[in-house]
Amino acid sequence: MFVNSGKELINICKEKKITIWQYTLQSESKDSGLNEKDVFERMRNSFKVMEASAEEALHKEVKSYSGLIGGNAFKLNKYVQNKKTLTGEFMVKAMARALSCSEVNAAMGRIVAAPTAGSCGIVPATIISAGEKLNLSEDDMVKGLLTATGIGMIIAKNATVSGAEGGCQAECGSAAAMASAAVVEMMGGCVSQALDAAAIVIKNILGLVCDPVAGLVEIPCAKRNASGTVSALTTADMVLSGVHSYIPFDDVVSAMYEVGKSLPCSLRETALGGVAATPTGAALQKQVFGE
Amino acid sequence: MKNYSIFDIMGPIMVGPSSSHTAGAARLAKTARIISGGNIEKVKFLLHGSFAKTYKGHGTDKALVAGILLLDPWDERLKNSFELAKEEGISFEFIETDLGNVHPNTVKFMIIKKDGSTSEITGSSIGGGNILIFDINGTSVEFTGNNPTIITKHKDVPGVIWQITKVLFEKNINIANMKVYQKKKGIEATMVIETDAPLSNEVIQAIKSISLIDDVKIINPMTEGE
Q1: Lower Cβ count inside 10 Å, N or C end of chain B?
Q2: Do B57 and A216 touch (CB under 8 A)?
Q3: B168 is in which domain, residue-wise?
Q4: Residue B89 and residue B131 in one domain
Q5: ipTM of the complex
Q6: Whole-model pTM?
Q7: DSSP SS3 for A212
Q8: Domain end call among B79, B107, B137
Protein backbone atom coordinates (compact mmCIF):
# COMPACT_ATOMS: atom_id res chain seq x y z
CA MET A 1 0.00 0.00 0.00
CA PHE A 2 1.27 3.47 -0.90
CA VAL A 3 2.54 5.57 2.02
CA ASN A 4 0.00 7.85 3.67
CA SER A 5 2.02 11.05 4.06
CA GLY A 6 4.92 13.10 2.77
CA LYS A 7 6.77 12.38 5.99
CA GLU A 8 6.45 8.64 5.44
CA LEU A 9 7.55 9.08 1.84
CA ILE A 10 10.73 10.90 2.92
CA ASN A 11 11.49 8.16 5.46
CA ILE A 12 10.92 5.19 3.18
CA CYS A 13 12.92 6.75 0.32
CA LYS A 14 15.77 7.54 2.72
CA GLU A 15 15.70 4.03 4.16
CA LYS A 16 15.71 2.33 0.73
CA LYS A 17 17.96 4.99 -0.84
CA ILE A 18 15.48 5.56 -3.69
CA THR A 19 13.65 8.47 -5.32
CA ILE A 20 9.90 9.22 -5.40
CA TRP A 21 9.50 7.81 -8.92
CA GLN A 22 11.23 4.59 -7.92
CA TYR A 23 9.09 4.23 -4.81
CA THR A 24 5.91 4.93 -6.81
CA LEU A 25 6.85 2.30 -9.40
CA GLN A 26 7.75 -0.32 -6.79
CA SER A 27 4.62 0.30 -4.74
CA GLU A 28 2.28 0.04 -7.75
CA SER A 29 4.00 -3.11 -8.92
CA LYS A 30 3.53 -4.68 -5.51
CA ASP A 31 -0.13 -3.62 -5.17
CA SER A 32 -1.23 -4.52 -8.69
CA GLY A 33 0.77 -7.71 -9.19
CA LEU A 34 2.13 -6.33 -12.47
CA ASN A 35 5.89 -6.30 -12.88
CA GLU A 36 7.70 -2.95 -12.78
CA LYS A 37 8.39 -2.96 -16.50
CA ASP A 38 4.67 -3.34 -17.32
CA VAL A 39 3.73 -0.52 -14.95
CA PHE A 40 6.42 1.68 -16.51
CA GLU A 41 5.21 0.88 -20.04
CA ARG A 42 1.61 1.64 -19.11
CA MET A 43 2.79 5.02 -17.80
CA ARG A 44 4.73 5.54 -21.05
CA ASN A 45 1.47 4.94 -22.92
CA SER A 46 -0.15 7.74 -20.89
CA PHE A 47 2.87 9.96 -21.57
CA LYS A 48 2.46 9.49 -25.33
CA VAL A 49 -1.20 10.52 -25.15
CA MET A 50 -0.11 13.59 -23.14
CA GLU A 51 2.55 14.49 -25.70
CA ALA A 52 0.03 14.36 -28.54
CA SER A 53 -2.51 16.50 -26.69
CA ALA A 54 0.17 19.06 -25.71
CA GLU A 55 1.18 19.38 -29.37
CA GLU A 56 -2.07 19.24 -31.34
CA ALA A 57 -3.51 22.70 -30.69
CA LEU A 58 -0.14 24.44 -31.21
CA HIS A 59 -0.29 23.94 -34.95
CA LYS A 60 -3.98 24.39 -35.69
CA GLU A 61 -6.84 26.25 -34.09
CA VAL A 62 -8.73 23.75 -31.95
CA LYS A 63 -12.23 24.92 -31.04
CA SER A 64 -14.17 23.53 -28.10
CA TYR A 65 -17.24 21.39 -28.69
CA SER A 66 -19.47 24.01 -27.05
CA GLY A 67 -17.89 26.77 -29.13
CA LEU A 68 -16.88 28.80 -26.05
CA ILE A 69 -13.09 28.60 -26.33
CA GLY A 70 -10.29 27.66 -28.68
CA GLY A 71 -7.34 28.85 -30.70
CA ASN A 72 -5.35 30.29 -27.79
CA ALA A 73 -2.60 27.65 -27.79
CA PHE A 74 -2.16 28.37 -31.50
CA LYS A 75 -1.89 32.13 -30.79
CA LEU A 76 0.74 31.64 -28.10
CA ASN A 77 2.77 29.28 -30.25
CA LYS A 78 2.80 31.84 -33.07
CA TYR A 79 3.73 34.60 -30.64
CA VAL A 80 6.70 32.63 -29.32
CA GLN A 81 8.18 32.52 -32.79
CA ASN A 82 8.68 36.31 -32.98
CA LYS A 83 11.24 36.02 -30.14
CA LYS A 84 10.12 39.25 -28.51
CA THR A 85 8.44 37.66 -25.51
CA LEU A 86 8.97 38.96 -22.01
CA THR A 87 9.24 35.66 -20.15
CA GLY A 88 11.09 33.88 -22.92
CA GLU A 89 10.44 31.09 -25.36
CA PHE A 90 10.58 28.40 -22.68
CA MET A 91 7.82 29.83 -20.52
CA VAL A 92 5.52 30.88 -23.37
CA LYS A 93 5.85 27.48 -25.02
CA ALA A 94 5.03 25.78 -21.71
CA MET A 95 1.84 27.87 -21.39
CA ALA A 96 0.93 27.05 -25.00
CA ARG A 97 1.29 23.33 -24.30
CA ALA A 98 -0.98 23.56 -21.23
CA LEU A 99 -3.62 25.40 -23.27
CA SER A 100 -3.27 22.85 -26.04
CA CYS A 101 -4.19 19.98 -23.70
CA SER A 102 -7.16 21.90 -22.30
CA GLU A 103 -8.38 22.89 -25.76
CA VAL A 104 -8.05 19.33 -27.06
CA ASN A 105 -10.01 18.12 -24.04
CA ALA A 106 -12.78 20.69 -24.61
CA ALA A 107 -12.90 19.67 -28.30
CA MET A 108 -13.61 16.04 -27.38
CA GLY A 109 -10.07 15.01 -28.19
CA ARG A 110 -8.03 12.43 -26.30
CA ILE A 111 -6.25 13.43 -23.07
CA VAL A 112 -5.05 11.91 -19.81
CA ALA A 113 -6.87 13.08 -16.69
CA ALA A 114 -3.89 14.33 -14.66
CA PRO A 115 -5.30 14.08 -12.07
CA THR A 116 -8.56 15.36 -13.65
CA ALA A 117 -9.71 16.29 -17.14
CA GLY A 118 -10.10 19.92 -16.04
CA SER A 119 -6.44 20.08 -14.97
CA CYS A 120 -5.13 17.86 -17.78
CA GLY A 121 -2.68 20.43 -19.19
CA ILE A 122 -0.41 21.18 -16.24
CA VAL A 123 1.51 17.94 -15.73
CA PRO A 124 2.18 17.33 -19.46
CA ALA A 125 3.15 20.95 -20.22
CA THR A 126 5.48 21.14 -17.22
CA ILE A 127 7.22 17.80 -17.69
CA ILE A 128 7.54 18.04 -21.48
CA SER A 129 8.84 21.63 -21.37
CA ALA A 130 11.34 20.88 -18.60
CA GLY A 131 12.39 17.67 -20.35
CA GLU A 132 12.99 19.54 -23.61
CA LYS A 133 15.01 22.28 -21.92
CA LEU A 134 17.09 19.81 -19.91
CA ASN A 135 17.56 17.55 -22.92
CA LEU A 136 16.11 14.52 -21.12
CA SER A 137 15.06 11.22 -22.66
CA GLU A 138 11.49 9.94 -22.91
CA ASP A 139 12.28 7.49 -20.10
CA ASP A 140 13.31 10.40 -17.87
CA MET A 141 10.02 12.17 -18.56
CA VAL A 142 8.03 9.00 -17.79
CA LYS A 143 9.96 8.88 -14.51
CA GLY A 144 8.86 12.48 -13.93
CA LEU A 145 5.29 11.36 -14.54
CA LEU A 146 5.72 8.69 -11.86
CA THR A 147 7.08 11.29 -9.41
CA ALA A 148 4.06 13.51 -10.11
CA THR A 149 1.73 10.56 -9.57
CA GLY A 150 3.34 9.72 -6.22
CA ILE A 151 2.63 13.24 -4.97
CA GLY A 152 -0.94 13.01 -6.31
CA MET A 153 -1.48 9.73 -4.43
CA ILE A 154 -0.71 11.40 -1.09
CA ILE A 155 -2.90 14.42 -1.88
CA ALA A 156 -5.82 12.17 -2.90
CA LYS A 157 -5.43 10.07 0.26
CA ASN A 158 -5.38 13.04 2.64
CA ALA A 159 -7.49 15.61 0.82
CA THR A 160 -9.15 15.56 -2.60
CA VAL A 161 -8.30 16.28 -6.24
CA SER A 162 -11.91 16.99 -7.19
CA GLY A 163 -13.11 20.53 -7.90
CA ALA A 164 -16.62 19.61 -6.78
CA GLU A 165 -15.21 18.70 -3.38
CA GLY A 166 -12.30 21.11 -2.86
CA GLY A 167 -12.46 23.85 -5.50
CA CYS A 168 -9.87 24.58 -8.19
CA GLN A 169 -7.09 24.58 -5.61
CA ALA A 170 -7.72 20.83 -5.34
CA GLU A 171 -7.67 20.23 -9.10
CA CYS A 172 -5.25 22.67 -10.74
CA GLY A 173 -3.48 23.17 -7.39
CA SER A 174 -2.80 19.45 -7.03
CA ALA A 175 -1.77 19.11 -10.67
CA ALA A 176 0.72 21.98 -10.35
CA ALA A 177 2.10 20.60 -7.08
CA MET A 178 2.56 17.19 -8.69
CA ALA A 179 4.23 18.73 -11.74
CA SER A 180 6.59 20.93 -9.71
CA ALA A 181 7.76 18.00 -7.57
CA ALA A 182 8.37 16.03 -10.76
CA VAL A 183 10.60 18.74 -12.21
CA VAL A 184 12.56 19.01 -8.96
CA GLU A 185 13.30 15.29 -9.11
CA MET A 186 14.04 15.43 -12.86
CA MET A 187 16.68 18.08 -12.03
CA GLY A 188 18.29 15.97 -9.32
CA GLY A 189 16.59 17.49 -6.28
CA CYS A 190 15.98 15.27 -3.23
CA VAL A 191 12.66 13.93 -1.93
CA SER A 192 12.17 16.68 0.65
CA GLN A 193 12.89 19.34 -1.96
CA ALA A 194 10.26 17.80 -4.25
CA LEU A 195 7.74 17.89 -1.39
CA ASP A 196 8.72 21.49 -0.60
CA ALA A 197 7.99 22.46 -4.19
CA ALA A 198 4.58 20.78 -4.00
CA ALA A 199 3.88 22.56 -0.70
CA ILE A 200 4.84 26.00 -2.04
CA VAL A 201 2.72 25.58 -5.17
CA ILE A 202 -0.37 24.67 -3.14
CA LYS A 203 0.23 27.53 -0.69
CA ASN A 204 0.27 29.94 -3.63
CA ILE A 205 -3.06 28.74 -5.00
CA LEU A 206 -4.80 28.06 -1.67
CA GLY A 207 -8.44 29.08 -1.76
CA LEU A 208 -8.86 29.14 -5.53
CA VAL A 209 -12.51 28.47 -6.31
CA CYS A 210 -14.00 26.22 -9.00
CA ASP A 211 -16.36 28.41 -11.04
CA PRO A 212 -16.69 26.99 -14.56
CA VAL A 213 -18.81 29.10 -16.91
CA ALA A 214 -21.86 27.08 -17.99
CA GLY A 215 -20.47 24.20 -15.94
CA LEU A 216 -18.03 23.40 -18.74
CA VAL A 217 -14.31 22.78 -18.28
CA GLU A 218 -13.34 25.75 -20.46
CA ILE A 219 -13.63 29.23 -18.89
CA PRO A 220 -11.64 29.90 -16.70
CA CYS A 221 -10.16 26.38 -16.55
CA ALA A 222 -7.92 26.39 -19.64
CA LYS A 223 -6.03 29.52 -18.56
CA ARG A 224 -5.69 28.17 -15.05
CA ASN A 225 -3.82 25.27 -16.62
CA ALA A 226 -1.38 27.75 -18.16
CA SER A 227 -0.99 29.57 -14.87
CA GLY A 228 -0.51 26.32 -12.92
CA THR A 229 2.24 25.32 -15.33
CA VAL A 230 4.10 28.60 -14.77
CA SER A 231 3.80 28.16 -11.01
CA ALA A 232 5.11 24.57 -11.20
CA LEU A 233 8.15 25.59 -13.26
CA THR A 234 9.12 28.73 -11.32
CA THR A 235 8.65 27.02 -7.96
CA ALA A 236 11.02 24.22 -8.98
CA ASP A 237 13.71 26.84 -9.54
CA MET A 238 12.94 28.47 -6.21
CA VAL A 239 13.34 25.18 -4.35
CA LEU A 240 16.47 24.12 -6.21
CA SER A 241 18.10 27.42 -5.21
CA GLY A 242 17.79 26.20 -1.60
CA VAL A 243 14.52 27.86 -0.59
CA HIS A 244 12.44 25.71 1.81
CA SER A 245 8.74 25.68 2.58
CA TYR A 246 8.27 26.84 6.16
CA ILE A 247 5.00 24.90 6.29
CA PRO A 248 5.64 21.25 5.41
CA PHE A 249 3.79 19.42 2.61
CA ASP A 250 1.52 17.36 4.89
CA ASP A 251 0.32 20.46 6.75
CA VAL A 252 -0.30 22.30 3.50
CA VAL A 253 -2.33 19.40 2.10
CA SER A 254 -4.57 19.28 5.16
CA ALA A 255 -4.94 23.07 5.05
CA MET A 256 -5.99 22.80 1.41
CA TYR A 257 -8.59 20.17 2.35
CA GLU A 258 -9.95 22.29 5.20
CA VAL A 259 -10.18 25.34 2.97
CA GLY A 260 -11.88 23.25 0.29
CA LYS A 261 -14.50 21.91 2.67
CA SER A 262 -15.27 25.40 3.94
CA LEU A 263 -15.89 26.76 0.44
CA PRO A 264 -19.61 27.32 -0.16
CA CYS A 265 -21.30 24.99 -2.60
CA SER A 266 -21.60 27.86 -5.13
CA LEU A 267 -17.80 27.86 -5.52
CA ARG A 268 -17.36 24.12 -6.00
CA GLU A 269 -18.07 23.30 -9.65
CA THR A 270 -21.75 24.19 -9.56
CA ALA A 271 -21.43 27.21 -11.89
CA LEU A 272 -23.43 29.23 -9.34
CA GLY A 273 -20.64 31.53 -8.18
CA GLY A 274 -17.37 33.23 -9.17
CA VAL A 275 -16.95 34.20 -12.82
CA ALA A 276 -19.70 31.72 -13.81
CA ALA A 277 -22.25 33.87 -11.97
CA THR A 278 -21.19 37.19 -13.55
CA PRO A 279 -23.50 38.76 -16.18
CA THR A 280 -21.06 37.68 -18.90
CA GLY A 281 -20.79 34.17 -17.45
CA ALA A 282 -24.58 33.89 -17.39
CA ALA A 283 -24.83 35.17 -20.98
CA LEU A 284 -22.28 32.61 -22.16
CA GLN A 285 -24.23 29.85 -20.40
CA LYS A 286 -27.37 30.97 -22.25
CA GLN A 287 -25.42 30.91 -25.51
CA VAL A 288 -24.53 27.21 -25.00
CA PHE A 289 -27.61 25.78 -23.34
CA GLY A 290 -30.38 28.27 -24.23
CA GLU A 291 -32.73 29.59 -21.56
CA MET B 1 -7.91 6.25 4.04
CA LYS B 2 -8.84 5.27 0.51
CA ASN B 3 -6.44 3.24 -1.62
CA TYR B 4 -5.78 4.16 -5.20
CA SER B 5 -3.90 2.69 -8.15
CA ILE B 6 -1.46 5.19 -9.63
CA PHE B 7 -3.57 5.01 -12.80
CA ASP B 8 -6.57 6.35 -10.89
CA ILE B 9 -4.52 9.47 -10.17
CA MET B 10 -2.71 9.73 -13.53
CA GLY B 11 -5.63 8.69 -15.68
CA PRO B 12 -7.89 7.62 -17.16
CA ILE B 13 -6.89 8.14 -20.76
CA MET B 14 -10.13 9.50 -22.16
CA VAL B 15 -11.86 11.63 -24.74
CA GLY B 16 -12.85 14.92 -23.13
CA PRO B 17 -14.20 17.07 -21.83
CA SER B 18 -15.49 15.46 -18.63
CA SER B 19 -14.66 12.20 -16.87
CA SER B 20 -18.16 11.99 -15.40
CA HIS B 21 -20.22 13.45 -18.26
CA THR B 22 -18.26 12.02 -21.20
CA ALA B 23 -16.02 9.07 -20.23
CA GLY B 24 -18.49 7.71 -17.65
CA ALA B 25 -21.39 8.12 -20.07
CA ALA B 26 -19.55 6.14 -22.76
CA ARG B 27 -18.78 3.36 -20.27
CA LEU B 28 -22.40 3.21 -19.10
CA ALA B 29 -23.66 2.90 -22.66
CA LYS B 30 -21.11 0.27 -23.66
CA THR B 31 -22.06 -1.80 -20.62
CA ALA B 32 -25.79 -1.39 -21.42
CA ARG B 33 -25.15 -2.49 -24.99
CA ILE B 34 -23.36 -5.64 -23.81
CA ILE B 35 -26.19 -6.46 -21.39
CA SER B 36 -28.78 -5.94 -24.14
CA GLY B 37 -26.99 -8.44 -26.38
CA GLY B 38 -26.77 -6.18 -29.42
CA ASN B 39 -28.76 -6.32 -32.69
CA ILE B 40 -30.17 -2.91 -31.83
CA GLU B 41 -32.68 -0.92 -33.83
CA LYS B 42 -33.25 2.06 -31.58
CA VAL B 43 -32.14 3.45 -28.24
CA LYS B 44 -34.00 5.97 -26.10
CA PHE B 45 -31.73 7.67 -23.58
CA LEU B 46 -33.66 8.95 -20.56
CA LEU B 47 -31.41 11.58 -19.02
CA HIS B 48 -31.72 12.62 -15.39
CA GLY B 49 -30.36 15.52 -13.30
CA SER B 50 -27.09 17.03 -14.46
CA PHE B 51 -27.07 14.67 -17.45
CA ALA B 52 -30.41 16.14 -18.55
CA LYS B 53 -29.37 19.75 -17.97
CA THR B 54 -25.86 19.77 -19.45
CA TYR B 55 -25.59 16.84 -21.85
CA LYS B 56 -25.13 18.99 -24.94
CA GLY B 57 -22.16 21.02 -23.71
CA HIS B 58 -20.31 17.97 -22.36
CA GLY B 59 -20.89 15.78 -25.40
CA THR B 60 -22.72 13.31 -23.15
CA ASP B 61 -25.05 12.58 -26.07
CA LYS B 62 -22.18 11.64 -28.41
CA ALA B 63 -20.52 9.59 -25.67
CA LEU B 64 -23.73 7.63 -25.01
CA VAL B 65 -24.22 6.81 -28.69
CA ALA B 66 -20.52 5.86 -28.95
CA GLY B 67 -20.90 3.42 -26.07
CA ILE B 68 -23.90 1.81 -27.78
CA LEU B 69 -21.56 1.28 -30.77
CA LEU B 70 -19.10 -0.45 -28.37
CA LEU B 71 -16.56 2.38 -28.64
CA ASP B 72 -14.32 2.81 -25.58
CA PRO B 73 -14.14 6.09 -23.59
CA TRP B 74 -10.69 6.83 -25.09
CA ASP B 75 -11.68 6.18 -28.71
CA GLU B 76 -11.30 9.37 -30.77
CA ARG B 77 -14.16 8.32 -33.05
CA LEU B 78 -16.44 9.12 -30.09
CA LYS B 79 -17.16 12.62 -31.36
CA ASN B 80 -18.39 11.24 -34.70
CA SER B 81 -20.68 8.67 -33.09
CA PHE B 82 -23.92 10.11 -34.52
CA GLU B 83 -22.68 9.54 -38.07
CA LEU B 84 -21.33 6.08 -37.17
CA ALA B 85 -24.70 5.10 -35.66
CA LYS B 86 -26.44 6.20 -38.83
CA GLU B 87 -24.12 3.98 -40.89
CA GLU B 88 -24.99 1.05 -38.63
CA GLY B 89 -28.69 1.82 -38.94
CA ILE B 90 -29.20 2.51 -35.23
CA SER B 91 -31.53 5.38 -34.40
CA PHE B 92 -31.57 7.20 -31.08
CA GLU B 93 -33.50 9.76 -29.08
CA PHE B 94 -32.62 11.82 -25.99
CA ILE B 95 -35.35 12.48 -23.45
CA GLU B 96 -34.86 14.77 -20.46
CA THR B 97 -36.67 13.28 -17.51
CA ASP B 98 -36.81 12.83 -13.74
CA LEU B 99 -35.84 9.33 -12.62
CA GLY B 100 -36.50 10.09 -8.95
CA ASN B 101 -34.11 9.98 -6.02
CA VAL B 102 -30.98 8.83 -7.89
CA HIS B 103 -27.46 10.17 -8.54
CA PRO B 104 -27.49 13.43 -10.57
CA ASN B 105 -25.62 11.77 -13.45
CA THR B 106 -28.04 8.97 -14.21
CA VAL B 107 -29.32 7.57 -17.50
CA LYS B 108 -31.92 4.93 -18.31
CA PHE B 109 -31.37 3.07 -21.57
CA MET B 110 -34.49 1.82 -23.37
CA ILE B 111 -33.06 -0.44 -26.03
CA ILE B 112 -35.34 -1.69 -28.79
CA LYS B 113 -33.90 -4.62 -30.73
CA LYS B 114 -34.47 -5.66 -34.31
CA ASP B 115 -36.52 -8.69 -33.17
CA GLY B 116 -38.90 -6.35 -31.33
CA SER B 117 -37.70 -7.23 -27.82
CA THR B 118 -36.62 -4.52 -25.42
CA SER B 119 -34.03 -4.08 -22.66
CA GLU B 120 -34.11 -1.41 -19.97
CA ILE B 121 -30.91 -0.68 -18.11
CA THR B 122 -30.27 2.14 -15.63
CA GLY B 123 -26.95 3.35 -14.25
CA SER B 124 -25.06 6.34 -12.90
CA SER B 125 -21.73 7.96 -13.67
CA ILE B 126 -20.31 8.29 -10.18
CA GLY B 127 -17.10 10.26 -10.80
CA GLY B 128 -13.68 9.89 -12.41
CA GLY B 129 -15.18 7.83 -15.23
CA ASN B 130 -16.48 5.18 -12.81
CA ILE B 131 -20.02 3.82 -13.17
CA LEU B 132 -22.68 1.92 -11.28
CA ILE B 133 -25.36 -0.15 -13.02
CA PHE B 134 -28.32 -0.54 -10.69
CA ASP B 135 -31.29 -1.76 -12.67
CA ILE B 136 -31.64 -4.34 -15.44
CA ASN B 137 -35.15 -4.90 -16.80
CA GLY B 138 -36.74 -3.97 -13.50
CA THR B 139 -34.41 -6.08 -11.36
CA SER B 140 -32.34 -4.10 -8.87
CA VAL B 141 -28.67 -5.04 -9.20
CA GLU B 142 -25.44 -3.31 -8.26
CA PHE B 143 -22.12 -3.55 -10.05
CA THR B 144 -19.40 -1.23 -11.33
CA GLY B 145 -17.82 -3.14 -14.21
CA ASN B 146 -14.38 -2.66 -12.65
CA ASN B 147 -14.10 -6.43 -12.22
CA PRO B 148 -14.98 -9.03 -14.83
CA THR B 149 -18.71 -9.51 -14.26
CA ILE B 150 -21.14 -12.35 -14.99
CA ILE B 151 -24.86 -11.56 -15.11
CA THR B 152 -27.23 -14.48 -15.36
CA LYS B 153 -30.93 -14.92 -15.83
CA HIS B 154 -31.76 -18.36 -14.50
CA LYS B 155 -34.47 -20.66 -13.11
CA ASP B 156 -35.04 -19.92 -9.44
CA VAL B 157 -34.40 -23.50 -8.29
CA PRO B 158 -31.75 -25.12 -6.05
CA GLY B 159 -28.39 -25.99 -7.60
CA VAL B 160 -27.90 -23.25 -10.20
CA ILE B 161 -25.45 -21.25 -8.12
CA TRP B 162 -23.48 -24.40 -7.35
CA GLN B 163 -23.21 -25.27 -11.05
CA ILE B 164 -21.88 -21.83 -11.95
CA THR B 165 -19.39 -21.61 -9.09
CA LYS B 166 -18.21 -25.13 -9.98
CA VAL B 167 -17.24 -23.89 -13.46
CA LEU B 168 -15.32 -20.99 -11.90
CA PHE B 169 -13.65 -23.33 -9.39
CA GLU B 170 -12.53 -25.67 -12.16
CA LYS B 171 -10.96 -22.75 -14.02
CA ASN B 172 -9.36 -21.48 -10.79
CA ILE B 173 -11.23 -18.16 -10.97
CA ASN B 174 -11.77 -16.44 -7.64
CA ILE B 175 -15.09 -14.70 -6.93
CA ALA B 176 -14.67 -11.18 -5.55
CA ASN B 177 -18.37 -10.39 -4.98
CA MET B 178 -21.63 -12.12 -5.74
CA LYS B 179 -25.30 -11.46 -5.21
CA VAL B 180 -28.48 -13.31 -6.14
CA TYR B 181 -31.73 -11.48 -6.86
CA GLN B 182 -34.99 -13.41 -6.86
CA LYS B 183 -37.34 -11.94 -9.43
CA LYS B 184 -40.18 -14.47 -9.21
CA LYS B 185 -40.03 -17.24 -6.62
CA GLY B 186 -39.44 -20.64 -8.20
CA ILE B 187 -39.47 -19.11 -11.69
CA GLU B 188 -36.78 -16.53 -12.37
CA ALA B 189 -33.71 -15.07 -10.67
CA THR B 190 -30.68 -12.99 -11.59
CA MET B 191 -27.17 -13.35 -10.26
CA VAL B 192 -24.28 -10.92 -10.50
CA ILE B 193 -20.81 -12.39 -9.95
CA GLU B 194 -17.68 -10.24 -9.98
CA THR B 195 -14.43 -12.17 -10.38
CA ASP B 196 -10.73 -11.39 -9.95
CA ALA B 197 -9.59 -12.93 -13.24
CA PRO B 198 -10.78 -12.16 -16.77
CA LEU B 199 -13.44 -14.48 -18.19
CA SER B 200 -12.45 -16.42 -21.29
CA ASN B 201 -14.78 -17.66 -24.01
CA GLU B 202 -14.34 -21.17 -22.65
CA VAL B 203 -15.74 -20.12 -19.26
CA ILE B 204 -18.58 -18.25 -20.91
CA GLN B 205 -19.52 -21.30 -23.01
CA ALA B 206 -19.35 -23.60 -19.98
CA ILE B 207 -21.74 -21.35 -18.04
CA LYS B 208 -24.06 -20.95 -21.04
CA SER B 209 -24.34 -24.73 -21.40
CA ILE B 210 -25.88 -25.10 -17.92
CA SER B 211 -29.47 -26.07 -18.70
CA LEU B 212 -31.13 -24.06 -15.91
CA ILE B 213 -29.61 -20.84 -17.20
CA ASP B 214 -31.70 -18.82 -19.64
CA ASP B 215 -29.19 -16.11 -20.39
CA VAL B 216 -25.63 -15.09 -19.50
CA LYS B 217 -23.89 -11.78 -20.09
CA ILE B 218 -20.21 -11.24 -19.49
CA ILE B 219 -18.66 -7.81 -19.01
CA ASN B 220 -14.88 -7.80 -19.02
CA PRO B 221 -13.35 -4.49 -17.83
CA MET B 222 -12.40 -1.96 -20.47
CA THR B 223 -8.63 -1.88 -20.49
CA GLU B 224 -7.20 1.47 -21.31
CA GLY B 225 -5.44 2.16 -24.57
CA GLU B 226 -5.91 -1.27 -26.15
Answers
A1: C
A2: yes
A3: 149-219
A4: yes
A5: 0.95
A6: 0.91
A7: coil
A8: B137
